[in-house]
Amino acid sequence: MRLLVLFWALFWLFPIAWASPSKPLVKEGISSVYTVRKGDTLWDISAHFLSNPWLWPRLWEANSYIENPHLIYPGDQLHLVWFNGQPQLQLKKRVKVSPSIRIKRSPITTLQESLLLPYLVEHRLLTSAELDRLPRVLGDSNGKGYISPGDTVWVDTGLELGEWWWVYRPGKLFSRQLPKGGEGISVRGLEEIAKVKVTEIEGDISQVSLSSFRQEIRQNDVLLPAPLPREKVSLRFVPSEPPLNIQAKILGHLDVRSYIATSDIVVLDRGHLDNVSAGNIFHIYRSGALVEGDKGEYQYQNSGYLKKQYQLSQMALGEIMVIRPYEHFSLAVVTRATEPLGLDILALPPRQPFSESTRL
Q1: Residue 317 near residue 284 (C-beta atoms within 8 A)
Q2: CA distances from 263 to 104, 319, 343, 358 (A)
Q3: Is residue 174 part of a domain?
Q4: Do 206 and 306 fall into the same domain?
Q5: CB neighbours (10 Å) of residue 50?
Q6: Origin, by domain of life (predicted)?
Q7: Domain region containing 99
Q8: Mean of pLDDT values over 86-111
Q9: pTM of the full predicted structure?
């Protein structure tokens, strides 16, 4: 599958206003030539050259003599050159050995394809009203609580014979308050359980057979139509800045783990109605400790009494990229993290490049 890399879009991005002028753009002591390897992502290559991969557009220079300069393939070489004291990258395409030999190659992607696709092709956040409209698993003819391949599965809706459906289990509840005194709103994360095909219709209920499954189906699991084929899903994420004054919070991720790390998918409490778009980059922070008391009696607490208080500065923890905004929430991938992340992590527009991080 030929997935376009975002270099064409990245070339037109303006220089990042928040870049620190005192911090070198290019890493010291690196090789000036990088050969693209199979499995590389844009972030891998950016991390090779740059102190902060977000600054990739400052290095890239389109070459008019190269066909499709926004596509980079394994075997191509990137050369670090200097013009008027400024670093730039130039692409040198790999030369074909023989016109009679044709090797099909796929360009590199911005982020790991296997990491993102499940969250792009499948609906993973739904409101209670949306869940109420979905078909639900009634159970098994033998009364089993856990349904596996070979069992008879019945659904409470008359579906179309031969159709494919995906089975999900409603999981974590994520909530936020709408702005300007608005009401609270919640969504539930969905965990993929199985893939089924409709084999029989009896009035207003349907029988389905399991094609593949990750775990046993249970009563009240929900069904959604089979998503688009993965080859029809685009990974064209244009790294971009979110709205200037937006403040978001990481609410957690979709599975049961307590901590969040690099490459995990997280849920943000802001969505496209808050002007969040796919590709938006946020830096993530832990709120600084609150200290109160008089000199010589400082304590980490908030007693509520009328004592002098000091709000210590936020701690920078890493970076995330939005991959799928919903109305009021978004899914984002953790592209860098300095440590395992807990809850109540702030997501803010980028201020300055990170110097030390774990890269995706």
Answers
A1: yes
A2: 28, 11, 16, 10
A3: yes
A4: no
A5: 21
A6: Bacteria
A7: 7-111
A8: 59
A9: 0.70
Does 110 have pLDDT greater than 90? no
What pLDDT is recorded for position 87?
76
Beta strands in the chain (DSSP E): 33-35, 77-83, 86-92, 125-126, 137-140, 153-155, 164-177, 184-202, 205-213, 222-225, 248-253, 265-268, 281-286, 290-292, 299-300, 309-311, 315-325, 330-337, 345-348, 358-359
CA–CA distances in Å: residue 211 to residues 86, 220, 263: 56, 19, 29
Question: Which of 45, 77, 111 marks a domain boundary?
Answer: 111
| Within a domain: 235 | no
Which of 68, 87, 111 is a domain's end point?
111
CA distances from 55 to 38, 72, 119, 167, 321 (A): 23, 18, 26, 41, 14
Is the pLDDT confidence value at 272 over 90?
yes
Say which range, 30-39, 148-157, 159-168, has the weakest mean pLDDT: 30-39
Total of domains in the chain: 3
Q: Which has the closest alpha carbon to 218: 145, 150, 135, 134?
A: 145
Reported as half-sphere exposure (CB side, CA atoms, 13 A), residue 348 has a value of: 16
My answer on whether 23 and 66 are in the same domain is yes
As given in the structure block, the two tokens for residue 99 are: 């016109």
What CATH number corresponds to the domain at position 210? Answer: 2.40.10
- Specify the 3-state DSSP secondary structure of 242: coil
Q: Could you tell me if residue 231 is inside a domain?
A: no
pLDDT band at 17 (very low <50, low <70, confident <90, very high): very low
Q: Which secondary-structure segment (H or E) carries 117? A: helix 113-121
- Rounded to whole angstroms, how far apart are CA atoms 318 and 278? 18
Across residues 109-137, what is the average pLDDT? Answer: 81
- The pLDDT score that the predictor gives to residue 113 is 67
Instruction: Enter the DSSP assignment of 64.
Output: T
Give the CA count within 13 Å in the CB-facing half-sphere of 212: 3
